[in-house]
Design goal:
single chain, 2 domains, Double Stranded RNA Binding Domain, 10 helices, two-stranded antiparallel ribbon, seven-stranded mixed sheet, alpha+beta, Serine Threonine Protein Phosphatase 5, Tetratricopeptide repeat
Protein backbone atom coordinates (compact mmCIF):
# COMPACT_ATOMS: atom_id res chain seq x y z
CA UNK A 1 0.00 0.00 0.00
CA UNK A 2 1.00 3.60 -0.48
CA UNK A 3 1.50 5.30 2.89
CA UNK A 4 2.01 9.01 3.15
CA UNK A 5 3.10 10.65 6.35
CA UNK A 6 2.02 14.10 7.34
CA UNK A 7 4.42 17.00 7.30
CA UNK A 8 4.78 19.03 10.43
CA UNK A 9 1.59 21.03 10.83
CA UNK A 10 3.52 24.29 11.08
CA UNK A 11 5.59 24.95 8.00
CA UNK A 12 8.49 27.42 8.37
CA UNK A 13 9.99 29.23 5.46
CA UNK A 14 12.94 31.53 6.11
CA UNK A 15 13.44 34.09 3.38
CA UNK A 16 15.84 36.66 4.83
CA UNK A 17 16.73 38.61 7.95
CA UNK A 18 16.62 42.37 7.92
CA UNK A 19 19.97 44.15 8.17
CA UNK A 20 20.77 45.96 11.37
CA UNK A 21 21.07 49.62 10.62
CA UNK A 22 20.58 51.68 13.73
CA UNK A 23 22.30 51.76 17.09
CA UNK A 24 19.08 51.70 19.12
CA UNK A 25 16.81 49.18 20.83
CA UNK A 26 15.20 48.45 17.44
CA UNK A 27 18.53 47.23 16.11
CA UNK A 28 18.24 44.28 18.49
CA UNK A 29 14.98 43.17 16.84
CA UNK A 30 15.09 41.20 13.59
CA UNK A 31 12.43 39.52 11.47
CA UNK A 32 11.75 36.32 9.60
CA UNK A 33 8.92 35.08 7.41
CA UNK A 34 6.82 32.05 8.35
CA UNK A 35 3.86 30.32 6.74
CA UNK A 36 0.67 29.99 8.76
CA UNK A 37 -2.33 27.87 7.91
CA UNK A 38 -5.82 29.23 7.33
CA UNK A 39 -8.29 26.38 8.03
CA UNK A 40 -10.39 25.15 5.13
CA UNK A 41 -14.01 26.18 5.01
CA UNK A 42 -15.09 22.53 5.18
CA UNK A 43 -12.25 21.38 7.42
CA UNK A 44 -12.82 17.99 9.00
CA UNK A 45 -13.16 17.61 12.79
CA UNK A 46 -9.88 17.87 14.66
CA UNK A 47 -10.05 14.20 15.73
CA UNK A 48 -9.60 13.22 12.06
CA UNK A 49 -5.88 13.49 11.39
CA UNK A 50 -5.49 10.52 9.05
CA UNK A 51 -7.50 9.16 6.14
CA UNK A 52 -7.75 5.98 4.12
CA UNK A 53 -8.75 6.72 0.51
CA UNK A 54 -10.76 4.13 -1.44
CA UNK A 55 -12.85 3.91 -4.62
CA UNK A 56 -16.39 2.48 -4.83
CA UNK A 57 -17.30 4.19 -8.10
CA UNK A 58 -16.11 1.59 -10.61
CA UNK A 59 -18.11 -1.40 -11.85
CA UNK A 60 -17.74 -3.62 -14.92
CA UNK A 61 -18.84 -0.72 -17.12
CA UNK A 62 -15.45 0.93 -16.57
CA UNK A 63 -12.56 0.23 -18.89
CA UNK A 64 -8.92 1.23 -19.09
CA UNK A 65 -9.14 2.71 -22.59
CA UNK A 66 -6.11 2.76 -24.82
CA UNK A 67 -5.29 6.33 -25.78
CA UNK A 68 -4.93 5.74 -29.54
CA UNK A 69 -8.00 3.51 -29.82
CA UNK A 70 -10.19 5.95 -27.92
CA UNK A 71 -8.99 8.88 -30.04
CA UNK A 72 -9.60 6.94 -33.25
CA UNK A 73 -13.15 6.16 -32.14
CA UNK A 74 -13.93 9.88 -31.83
CA UNK A 75 -12.23 10.67 -35.15
CA UNK A 76 -14.36 8.06 -36.89
CA UNK A 77 -17.44 9.84 -35.58
CA UNK A 78 -16.24 13.02 -37.29
CA UNK A 79 -15.21 14.37 -33.87
CA UNK A 80 -18.85 15.32 -33.38
CA UNK A 81 -19.96 13.21 -30.49
CA UNK A 82 -21.45 13.37 -26.98
CA UNK A 83 -20.66 10.27 -24.97
CA UNK A 84 -20.23 9.05 -21.39
CA UNK A 85 -16.74 7.59 -21.12
CA UNK A 86 -16.10 5.52 -17.98
CA UNK A 87 -12.33 5.34 -17.82
CA UNK A 88 -10.79 3.47 -14.90
CA UNK A 89 -7.52 5.41 -15.18
CA UNK A 90 -9.33 8.72 -14.73
CA UNK A 91 -11.21 7.45 -11.66
CA UNK A 92 -8.03 6.07 -10.09
CA UNK A 93 -6.14 9.28 -10.91
CA UNK A 94 -8.67 11.11 -8.76
CA UNK A 95 -7.75 8.97 -5.74
CA UNK A 96 -3.98 9.13 -6.25
CA UNK A 97 -3.88 12.86 -6.99
CA UNK A 98 -6.13 13.61 -4.01
CA UNK A 99 -3.85 11.63 -1.70
CA UNK A 100 -0.85 13.67 -2.81
CA UNK A 101 -2.68 16.97 -2.39
CA UNK A 102 -4.01 16.15 1.07
CA UNK A 103 -0.53 15.05 2.10
CA UNK A 104 1.09 18.21 0.73
CA UNK A 105 -1.38 20.34 2.68
CA UNK A 106 0.29 19.25 5.93
CA UNK A 107 -3.10 18.57 7.48
CA UNK A 108 -3.50 14.80 7.03
CA UNK A 109 -1.77 11.45 7.06
CA UNK A 110 -3.04 9.51 4.06
CA UNK A 111 -3.13 5.80 3.23
CA UNK A 112 -4.01 4.58 -0.28
CA UNK A 113 -4.28 0.77 -0.19
CA UNK A 114 -3.03 -1.25 -3.14
CA UNK A 115 -6.43 -2.96 -3.16
CA UNK A 116 -8.36 0.29 -3.03
CA UNK A 117 -11.42 -0.57 -5.14
CA UNK A 118 -14.52 -1.61 -3.20
CA UNK A 119 -16.74 -4.04 -5.11
CA UNK A 120 -19.69 -2.41 -6.86
CA UNK A 121 -22.58 -4.10 -8.70
CA UNK A 122 -24.78 -1.01 -9.19
CA UNK A 123 -24.87 0.96 -12.48
CA UNK A 124 -22.35 3.80 -12.51
CA UNK A 125 -24.98 6.56 -12.13
CA UNK A 126 -26.59 5.12 -8.98
CA UNK A 127 -25.37 6.40 -5.62
CA UNK A 128 -24.83 3.40 -3.30
CA UNK A 129 -26.02 3.18 0.29
CA UNK A 130 -23.60 4.33 2.97
CA UNK A 131 -21.10 1.80 4.26
CA UNK A 132 -21.89 0.06 7.53
CA UNK A 133 -20.09 0.94 10.74
CA UNK A 134 -18.57 -2.55 10.72
CA UNK A 135 -17.05 -2.02 7.25
CA UNK A 136 -15.73 1.41 8.19
CA UNK A 137 -14.25 0.15 11.45
CA UNK A 138 -12.56 -2.80 9.77
CA UNK A 139 -10.93 -0.61 7.10
CA UNK A 140 -9.82 2.10 9.53
CA UNK A 141 -8.42 -0.51 11.94
CA UNK A 142 -6.63 -2.32 9.12
CA UNK A 143 -4.84 0.82 7.94
CA UNK A 144 -4.68 2.55 11.34
CA UNK A 145 -6.44 5.74 10.26
CA UNK A 146 -9.06 7.96 11.88
CA UNK A 147 -11.46 8.04 8.95
CA UNK A 148 -12.29 6.59 5.55
CA UNK A 149 -12.85 8.70 2.43
CA UNK A 150 -14.62 6.99 -0.47
CA UNK A 151 -15.23 8.03 -4.07
CA UNK A 152 -18.79 6.73 -4.36
CA UNK A 153 -19.67 7.79 -7.89
CA UNK A 154 -17.68 8.95 -10.90
CA UNK A 155 -18.54 9.70 -14.52
CA UNK A 156 -17.30 11.87 -17.35
CA UNK A 157 -19.27 12.99 -20.38
CA UNK A 158 -17.11 13.93 -23.37
CA UNK A 159 -18.63 16.34 -25.91
CA UNK A 160 -16.64 17.06 -29.07
CA UNK A 161 -17.30 19.28 -32.08
CA UNK A 162 -15.52 19.81 -35.39
CA UNK A 163 -16.21 22.13 -38.31
CA UNK A 164 -14.50 23.22 -41.54
CA UNK A 165 -15.08 26.53 -43.30
CA UNK A 166 -14.15 27.13 -46.90
CA UNK A 167 -12.66 30.46 -47.86
CA UNK A 168 -10.97 32.01 -50.88
CA UNK A 169 -7.25 32.61 -50.77
CA UNK A 170 -5.97 34.94 -53.57
CA UNK A 171 -2.67 33.03 -53.63
CA UNK A 172 -3.71 29.37 -53.38
CA UNK A 173 -7.34 29.53 -54.37
CA UNK A 174 -9.91 27.81 -52.18
CA UNK A 175 -8.73 26.71 -48.74
CA UNK A 176 -10.24 25.63 -45.45
CA UNK A 177 -10.03 26.76 -41.86
CA UNK A 178 -10.82 24.25 -39.15
CA UNK A 179 -12.27 24.52 -35.66
CA UNK A 180 -12.56 21.88 -32.94
CA UNK A 181 -13.62 21.83 -29.31
CA UNK A 182 -13.97 19.25 -26.60
CA UNK A 183 -15.89 19.71 -23.38
CA UNK A 184 -15.70 17.27 -20.51
CA UNK A 185 -18.41 17.32 -17.84
CA UNK A 186 -17.49 15.36 -14.73
CA UNK A 187 -19.57 14.17 -11.81
CA UNK A 188 -18.02 12.85 -8.62
CA UNK A 189 -19.56 12.07 -5.24
CA UNK A 190 -17.52 11.56 -2.06
CA UNK A 191 -18.36 10.39 1.43
CA UNK A 192 -16.18 10.57 4.54
CA UNK A 193 -16.82 8.02 7.29
CA UNK A 194 -15.35 7.36 10.70
CA UNK A 195 -15.93 4.52 13.16
CA UNK A 196 -18.61 5.18 15.75
CA UNK A 197 -22.34 5.51 16.18
CA UNK A 198 -22.50 8.34 13.65
CA UNK A 199 -20.51 6.82 10.82
CA UNK A 200 -21.10 9.39 8.08
CA UNK A 201 -19.10 12.56 8.70
CA UNK A 202 -19.49 14.46 5.43
CA UNK A 203 -20.61 13.98 1.84
CA UNK A 204 -20.39 16.24 -1.19
CA UNK A 205 -20.90 16.18 -4.93
CA UNK A 206 -18.69 17.85 -7.53
CA UNK A 207 -20.09 18.71 -10.96
CA UNK A 208 -18.26 20.93 -13.41
CA UNK A 209 -17.11 21.20 -17.02
CA UNK A 210 -13.62 21.73 -18.38
CA UNK A 211 -13.12 22.54 -22.03
CA UNK A 212 -10.56 23.06 -24.77
CA UNK A 213 -10.85 24.60 -28.24
CA UNK A 214 -8.57 25.13 -31.20
CA UNK A 215 -8.56 26.67 -34.67
CA UNK A 216 -6.04 26.25 -37.49
CA UNK A 217 -5.59 25.91 -41.23
CA UNK A 218 -4.52 22.26 -41.07
CA UNK A 219 -6.23 19.44 -39.20
CA UNK A 220 -2.90 18.05 -38.00
CA UNK A 221 -1.96 21.27 -36.21
CA UNK A 222 -5.54 21.73 -35.04
CA UNK A 223 -5.69 18.45 -33.12
CA UNK A 224 -2.11 18.83 -31.99
CA UNK A 225 -3.26 21.77 -29.88
CA UNK A 226 -5.91 19.70 -28.10
CA UNK A 227 -5.29 17.03 -25.45
CA UNK A 228 -6.27 13.52 -26.45
CA UNK A 229 -9.57 12.24 -25.07
CA UNK A 230 -7.63 10.00 -22.69
CA UNK A 231 -5.53 12.94 -21.50
CA UNK A 232 -8.65 15.04 -21.02
CA UNK A 233 -10.20 12.30 -18.87
CA UNK A 234 -7.06 12.11 -16.73
CA UNK A 235 -7.09 15.90 -16.40
CA UNK A 236 -10.66 15.65 -15.14
CA UNK A 237 -9.51 13.26 -12.42
CA UNK A 238 -6.84 15.75 -11.35
CA UNK A 239 -9.33 18.64 -11.44
CA UNK A 240 -11.71 16.72 -9.16
CA UNK A 241 -8.85 16.09 -6.73
CA UNK A 242 -8.03 19.80 -6.73
CA UNK A 243 -11.68 20.65 -6.05
CA UNK A 244 -11.82 18.29 -3.08
CA UNK A 245 -8.49 19.51 -1.72
CA UNK A 246 -9.73 23.11 -1.83
CA UNK A 247 -12.63 22.05 0.42
CA UNK A 248 -10.68 20.04 2.98
CA UNK A 249 -7.13 21.41 3.14
CA UNK A 250 -5.88 24.60 4.77
CA UNK A 251 -4.35 27.37 2.73
CA UNK A 252 -0.95 28.74 3.66
CA UNK A 253 -0.08 32.43 3.84
CA UNK A 254 3.14 34.24 4.64
CA UNK A 255 3.46 36.33 7.79
CA UNK A 256 6.27 38.31 9.36
CA UNK A 257 7.50 37.46 12.84
CA UNK A 258 10.26 39.02 14.88
CA UNK A 259 12.63 38.09 17.68
CA UNK A 260 15.29 39.78 19.77
CA UNK A 261 19.06 39.56 19.44
CA UNK A 262 21.49 39.61 22.35
CA UNK A 263 24.63 40.32 20.36
CA UNK A 264 24.59 42.62 17.33
CA UNK A 265 27.72 41.13 15.77
CA UNK A 266 27.51 37.41 16.50
CA UNK A 267 24.18 36.40 18.01
CA UNK A 268 23.93 32.66 18.67
CA UNK A 269 20.13 32.60 18.48
CA UNK A 270 20.19 34.29 15.08
CA UNK A 271 22.76 31.82 13.78
CA UNK A 272 20.61 28.89 14.88
CA UNK A 273 17.44 30.38 13.38
CA UNK A 274 19.25 31.02 10.10
CA UNK A 275 20.03 27.29 10.02
CA UNK A 276 16.43 26.38 10.95
CA UNK A 277 17.63 24.84 14.23
CA UNK A 278 14.68 26.11 16.24
CA UNK A 279 14.97 23.58 19.09
CA UNK A 280 18.57 24.62 19.75
CA UNK A 281 17.64 28.30 19.58
CA UNK A 282 14.89 27.59 22.11
CA UNK A 283 17.40 25.99 24.47
CA UNK A 284 19.67 29.02 24.14
CA UNK A 285 16.78 31.39 24.92
CA UNK A 286 15.72 29.27 27.91
CA UNK A 287 19.14 29.98 29.43
CA UNK A 288 18.73 33.69 28.74
CA UNK A 289 15.26 33.61 30.34
CA UNK A 290 16.93 32.85 33.72
CA UNK A 291 18.68 36.24 33.70
CA UNK A 292 18.12 38.64 36.59
CA UNK A 293 18.24 41.49 34.08
CA UNK A 294 14.59 42.27 33.31
CA UNK A 295 15.25 43.47 29.78
CA UNK A 296 17.27 40.38 28.84
CA UNK A 297 14.76 38.06 30.51
CA UNK A 298 11.83 39.73 28.77
CA UNK A 299 13.45 39.48 25.36
CA UNK A 300 14.31 35.82 25.89
CA UNK A 301 10.72 35.10 26.96
CA UNK A 302 9.46 36.87 23.85
CA UNK A 303 11.70 34.70 21.71
CA UNK A 304 10.42 31.59 23.50
CA UNK A 305 6.89 32.65 22.62
CA UNK A 306 7.92 32.68 18.96
CA UNK A 307 9.58 29.26 19.29
CA UNK A 308 6.38 27.88 20.82
CA UNK A 309 4.32 29.24 17.94
CA UNK A 310 6.69 27.65 15.46
CA UNK A 311 6.13 24.36 17.32
CA UNK A 312 2.39 24.85 16.82
CA UNK A 313 1.69 25.43 20.53
CA UNK A 314 -0.27 28.69 20.63
CA UNK A 315 -1.26 28.35 24.30
CA UNK A 316 2.37 28.03 25.34
CA UNK A 317 3.30 30.94 23.08
CA UNK A 318 0.74 33.12 24.86
CA UNK A 319 2.11 32.03 28.25
CA UNK A 320 5.63 33.06 27.28
CA UNK A 321 4.32 36.28 25.76
CA UNK A 322 2.61 37.20 29.02
CA UNK A 323 5.78 36.47 30.98
CA UNK A 324 7.70 38.75 28.64
CA UNK A 325 5.04 41.46 28.98
CA UNK A 326 5.25 41.47 32.78
CA UNK A 327 9.04 41.08 32.99
CA UNK A 328 9.60 44.27 31.01
CA UNK A 329 7.10 46.13 28.83
CA UNK A 330 7.93 46.19 25.12
CA UNK A 331 5.62 47.40 22.39
CA UNK A 332 6.50 44.39 20.22
CA UNK A 333 5.25 42.05 22.95
CA UNK A 334 1.88 43.78 23.15
CA UNK A 335 1.39 43.50 19.37
CA UNK A 336 2.51 39.88 19.32
CA UNK A 337 0.11 38.90 22.13
CA UNK A 338 -2.78 40.39 20.16
CA UNK A 339 -1.75 38.37 17.12
CA UNK A 340 -1.45 35.16 19.14
CA UNK A 341 -4.87 35.65 20.68
CA UNK A 342 -6.35 36.18 17.22
CA UNK A 343 -4.74 32.92 16.06
CA UNK A 344 -6.14 31.08 19.07
CA UNK A 345 -9.65 32.44 18.53
CA UNK A 346 -9.58 31.43 14.85
CA UNK A 347 -8.68 27.84 15.85
CA UNK A 348 -11.45 27.71 18.44
CA UNK A 349 -14.13 28.99 16.07
CA UNK A 350 -13.27 26.92 13.02
Amino acid sequence: MLFIRKYQSHKIVFFFLLGLAFVSCKSYYTTLTIENARPAKDDLPSDIQSLTLMNRAMNNQFENYQEDSLQLYFYRQGFQLSKIVLDSTAADTTIRALAELLFESGRYDVVVPVERNIKRDLPYEILPDTLSNLQVSQICNQYNTDALMVLERFSAKVMTDFSAEKYSDPTTGSSYSYYASQDLKYNAFFRIYKPGSKTLVKEFELIDTIYWESADYTQLRLFGKLPSIKQALTNAGIKIALDVDSKLSPTWFAEKRGYFLFDLKNDKGQQLMNENRVAEAKAFWLEKAQSTNKKIRSRAEYNLALASELDGNIDQAIEWGLKSFYSNYQYQTELYLKKLNTLKESKLTK
